[in-house]
Design a protein that fits this description.
Strand content: under 5%
Shape: globular
Largest sheet: none
Order of helices and strands: HHHHHHHHHHHHHHHH
Helix content: over 70%
Radius of gyration: 20 Å
Length: 354
């Protein structure tokens, strides 16, 4: 009985900080969207005086930047409609921008602990600063990001051959409001602190209250809607449950301790699409003794294999449908089966694990 309580306590202790952090980052993303930051970025992207491939690469670069600073879930929610809008305004095929948004969000989530919930779940209890994590994971993160961007361009090369003139008009200004302030402060907190969950969440609540005092109760409703509480809560409960099961020995994964880095990354990728990468992160990191870098690489890039891989993909699907597109799970996996293994291999090589 006491042992079961101890396992439950450990699972809760591991799971709550990442979920609190992502809730804060989603709130900050809502504030940034309300400030028009993402629309301003789109207005600059459509004016790039270059061809479709360059426009796509620039758009993917924006996804990577927002993912690193504000989490891949925030990126999936707020940048998916932005990239779709860029394609439409330039008269380009939507597919490269639609699927590129989510593939890049997953692949570029290795830069900071807060870039992906899985990073925090695997690092639970280690209290490493974001700067130390960045230094260690930078080669792998850059490799996964670059290979995925190149892969998306290569897969959609035929759709990117048509000439598309740059969109005219004056670009929208970047407003210095709560959204921009929150993004800068959140990035600083994630770099400086080992566990930035509560500070970032408190920052988001304070800025949301500031916005509500000026704009009314609608700001609070928009913030709650951005959280997607049913999905986030369900994944939290599943993560805690699998954490308890792993600590109780109900799911034996001890054999992975003797596996090499490629095998660890591969199993993590498969586990991600089987049960989602957040529960998979809790399950595999609870075992202990696994290769942490390889585990993170598999959990972050692996979800590009199938739409079941990460919370970001579920949020991307909802955002894409809301923007008037029809994403396909089959088309996603046809591309992901090429992109995910390439990104994982490149990241492992860059990290020196092979």
């Amino acid at each position: 009985m006491l042992l079961g309580i101890a396992h439950a306590s450990e699972a809760l202790e591991q799971a709550w900080p990442p979920f609190v952090l992502v809730a804060g980052l989603l709130l900050l993303g809502e504030l940034a969207g309300a400030d028009g930051l993402f629309e301003a970025a789109a207005s600059h992207l459509v004016r790039i005086p270059a061809g479709p491939a360059v426009t796509l690469i620039a758009s993917l670069g924006l996804v990577a930047l927002v993912t690193a600073v504000l989490n891949l879930d925030t990126s999936a929610v707020f940048l998916t409609p932005v990239l779709i809008a860029v394609a439409r305004r330039r008269g380009l095929a939507e597919a490269p921008f639609l699927y590129g948004a989510v593939f890049m969000a997953n692949a570029s989530s290795l830069f900071l602990p807060g870039s992906n919930l899985t990073n925090l779940l695997v690092l639970s209890g280690r209290h490493r600063s974001g700067l130390a994590f960045l230094i260690e994971m930078l080669p792998a993160a850059l490799a996964a990001t670059a290979v995925t961007a190149a892969g998306v361009v290569a897969i959609h090369r035929r759709a990117l051959t048509a000439l598309a003139p740059a969109h005219g008009g004056t670009p929208l200004p970047v407003r210095a409001g709560p959204g921009l302030l929150g993004a800068v402060l959140a990035a600083a907190l994630m770099l400086a602190l080992g566990n930035p969950a509560l500070p970032v969440f408190a920052l988001a609540l304070a800025l949301l209250a500031w916005r509500a005092s000026r704009s009314g109760a609608a700001a609070l409703r928009d913030g709650l809607r951005a959280l997607g509480l049913p999905v986030l809560g369900s994944l939290f409960l599943l993560s805690v449950g699998l954490g308890i099961a792993a600590r109780s020995g109900l799911i034996p994964l001890g054999w992975l301790r003797s596996a090499g880095e490629p095998a660890t990354a591969g199993v993590a990728a498969v586990a991600s699409v089987a049960v989602n990468n957040l529960p998979a992160a809790v399950l595999m990191s609870s075992t202990g003794g696994l290769h942490p870098q390889a585990l993170l690489i598999g959990l972050n890039a692996g979800p590009n294999l199938a739409v079941t891989g990460s919370l970001a993909v579920l949020l991307w699907w909802r955002a894409a449908r809301a923007a008037g597109t029809r994403p396909s799970a089959l088309a996603y996996s046809r591309q992901g089966v090429l992109l995910a293994p390439a990104a994982i291999l490149a990241a492992l090589l860059a990290a020196g694990l092979l």
